[in-house]
Write a structure and sequence with these properties.
Number of domains: 2
CATH topology of the largest domain: 60s Ribosomal Protein L30, Chain: A
CATH superfamily of the largest domain: RutC-like
Shape: globular
Helix content: 10-25%
CATH architecture of the largest domain: 2-Layer Sandwich
Structural class: alpha/beta
Oligomer: single chain
Order of helices and strands: EHEHEEEEHE
């Protein structure tokens, strides 16, 4: 089997500089990263977290290290360069993984307010609902989840100014 090194990006924002808020956001980001990329933590080469200067309640790497099978992953935390007017309270991630070439593609994960950093790559923050922007980006067939949307989700989709489609996979 042939293997390839992939770099996967992601980011998430937190509502406040507390350990609880940061833990929730990092957990959400890493859960989404593992699910969307069918990632086995033993294939992770290394991960670097960067945080904006307004976040200092806890190290994101310390949160990641507590996850099952992440204790052997080389992790690093750094402070993201500050640029006036940039997105506040943001945790970014760059992770290198080794996956079979047959894996095909990787999915970069941008959640919450970080969706504005890369709207062409962001996924819905609603559990179990994945949205694809109508932009030319490589999405694999059948990568979405449940197509059965609640009326509230359907309303959000209809009122969105960005054209999107739900990626179906499976039945209701």
């Amino acid at each position: 089997m042939d293997w390839r090194v992939w770099a996967i990006r992601g980011a998430v924002t937190v509502p406040e500089n507390t350990e609880a808020s940061m833990r929730e956001a990092v957990t959400e980001l890493l859960d989404e990263l593992e699910v969307r990329n069918q990632l086995d933590p033993t294939h992770i080469i290394s991960a670097t977290f960067s945080v904006t200067r307004d976040l200092d309640a806890v190290f994101p790497a310390a949160i990641a290290r507590q996850r099952p099978r992440w204790d052997g992953v080389p992790l690093l935390d750094v402070q993201h360069m500050h640029v006036a007017g940039s997105l506040p309270r943001c945790i970014r991630l760059l992770i290198h993984v080794q996956l079979p070439v047959a894996h095909g593609t990787v999915h970069h994960i941008y959640l919450r307010g970080a969706k504005d950093l890369r709207p062409d790559l962001s996924v819905s923050s609603l559990p179990g609902v994945y949205l694809r922007h109508s932009l030319p980006i490589p999405w694999g067939k059948g990568k979405g989840l449940n197509p059965c949307l609640s009326p509230a989700v359907e309303l959000c989709l209809r009122e969105s100014s960005i054209p999107m489609e739900v990626l179906p996979n499976g039945a209701c």
